[in-house]
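seq/struct pair 1
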Amino acid sequence: MKEYQAVIVRLGKRVRDDEDALTDLLNERSRGGWTPTLMTQDSSRLTVLFSREAPNVDG
């Protein structure tokens, strides 16, 4: 089973700051096992959908 996580990044007027924020986000999620699955942009907002295999929980 997969689990999903959506993250919204608000883009500003400074491209360098936006690049740094997106790089940090991708690196952080990658270390947690998340893979970017879908990205959409609407005006000044970028939505990134991440997915990963859900850990098996044996009870």
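seq/struct pair 2
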Amino acid sequence: MRRYLPLVFFILTCAVINAQNSAYLIPRIVYVGDPAAMILPLPGYVHDSADIILTNGFPQDNDIDFHRIILERRASGGRLLIEFTAFAPGHLKLPVIEIGGEYFFDLSVTISSVIDSRVSELELSGAAAPLAAPGTSFLIYGTMAGIVLLLLLTLWFALRGRRYLREWIAKWRFSRLFISMRKIERHLYKTLLKGGKTREILDRLSEEFRTFLSYLTENNCRAMTAVELETLPLEQTFKQETNSGFLGKFFRRCDELRFSGETVNGEDITPLLADLRLFLDTVEKTGKSNPGEAA
């Protein structure tokens, strides 16, 4: 039986050599530096046996780095799996591989390169066109539209916006002034109902109303007499809506109660608060259309 072993080995070797022509690569096209695998189908063995895995002791090659070599022996058909990475383009011949007592030679691979072979010099191929991410167009055109709108708003504000801004500020101040005076009037009325000191309420009413008129007319009404208050432009502007000489009558009555020396009752202050409330309603209603007239 031993004298037939060389003949069996010779037959298997010839079968391996013929099978090497059917080797294929995964992936089919391999580039320089990419990991790949060569699969070499083998004829069936006498019986199945455990796979032989080679993870070190690889054959040396300057252009190829081996990672793992596996020999599968199956009765239905074996195969040789070679995992490698090539670092040179072109047709590369693999060194003789010995695994499990078997030798494999005349194996070769074709390695492609990212270098564009259509140019005369070794230059990298041109970069691929960038892919547009979803929403990129909206972001670009939206930003451009926003910049144009901002420039138009800036131009409009430089030409006409400042006048509208001044008018808006004037209306806002006009409204806040009346809100503040109404709060004071309600506070004085509640204090009067709770039995507060009438003379202190009367003094604050006169002082706060004069301060209100000073801001409204831009005149120093704190130092004016009742007669001088009758000459305010406010009296002429709202003459049709308010009783003529309202301010003079109002402060003349306040001064009489404050400096007469007589006892001041709540019934004396209540009409003054009612007149103040009516005056605020009338003046605000007329001046809302153009707060500048209140000055």
